[in-house]
Amino acid sequence: MYTLGLINGNVYRDGKFTKENVYIKEQLISNFTPHGEVLKCVKIVDCSNKLVLPGFIDPHVHINLNLGEFRSSDDYESASIAAAFGGITTFIDFLEPINTVDEFEEKLQQKHKEAESSFIDFSFHTTVGNFKDDVEKLVNLSFENGIPSIKLFTTYSESNRRCSYEKISEFIDISSLTGSLILIHSENDEIILNSKVEDTVASYSDSRPKESEVEEVERLAKLVSELKGRIYIVHVTCGSSIELLQKNYSELLQNRIFIESCPQYFILNKDVYETEKGKLFLLAPPLRSSEEQEKLKKNIANISTIGTDHAPFSKEEKQRHNSASKIPKGLGGLEYSFSLMYNLFGASIIPKYTINPAIIHKLYPTKGVIQEGSDADIVIFDPKKKFIIDSGHSNTDYSPYEGMNMKGAVESTILRGQFLIEKSKFIGMNKGRFIHRS
Ligand SMILES: [Zn+2]
After folding, report:
1. 369: which residues sit within 8 A by CB, 6+ positions away?
2. CATH code assigned to 2-53+374-385+406-426
3. What confidence score (pLDDT) does residue 37 get?
4. Does domain 56-360 have CATH number 3.40.50.300?
5. For residue 43, how far is its CA from the centre of ligand 1 (angstroms)?
6. Average pLDDT over the chain, rounded to whole?
7. Distance (Å) from CA 2 to ligand 1 centroid
């Protein structure tokens, strides 16, 4: 007897859709039969005309992000509810930046405590600032605690978060020995510091210009080609960055250099900064020109994962200051991430939310696939359902995508065999848990 049977759906397995019934026993996927043959289950859900997809993974979220004057508005409870409505069953948050190994334990415990209220499964990336300590020691300690990924910045020297190239090289080199992954926020600090534009919303995109990303991506690619190891470039905003890699470093792309991008860079562009709503769209790196936006779409095949960089603030917080430098940077995005990208790319976007992040971030085969023995994290998706985006379930009063028309909606979200969302209603019986990655 199975606990749950999902019958008559189009099931996404091994990169294609199959007409099968999926059976879940307790928390795991347990069996399959062809449509027409139904095994005994405690509960059966008819998924006719629906897509049955692996639960989505968002590898890049910020929850309780501390920016001094501001703190992003979602805690684990509200973020995980918004995520569940969007079909996300696992997300990966970032520990606060550290400069020495000694600080790791405290930042880790702090996140574990915050995450106790999560309704979905979660993991963390370790983050370093201007790291001055023993790289190997930190990588090993992080690994032992289930975190095989370290994030660093090539910019933000003004807040002491920029990591030196010497240390970046060490991190990349050591990643080849340990199998860790180095996540890099790639913007060229000198170009940003030397961009002498006004501190206004209208000029914001030019204050962190496209060249700052493209140049830094090239510099990192050169570094990787000279070392061993692997890097993962977070929130890539420019199609030009990917074209450069494709042209000069194609053997590294999706092999030792992985690209993550975010829905906002596909859906929105910098023209919005010229409008009166501009402040509500401030994030770092900034939105780009419509030309770069189009180039990003053209290069989607070389983008491995889609993360949201989720970090919402309220309208009041976004509008409190006039100088761009004082406005909190970040947008909410968890809830509508998949629908937005599905509307642009159709089913070809599915691997970037499932198997790709699962493999790259060491969640596979527990997560990211519908196969026997994997966690029963499943999204029932209605590809025909139309809806208009509203402010959503995140703990903020707007969504940057509000008013957009979508075709394709998450109907139900199942985490380890239990419904979190059932027919668009939040059930929330389960509690998320930390996924130890190794
Ligand atoms: Zn981020």
Report:
1. 13, 54, 354, 355, 358
2. 2.30.40.10
3. 97
4. no
5. 40
6. 97
7. 40
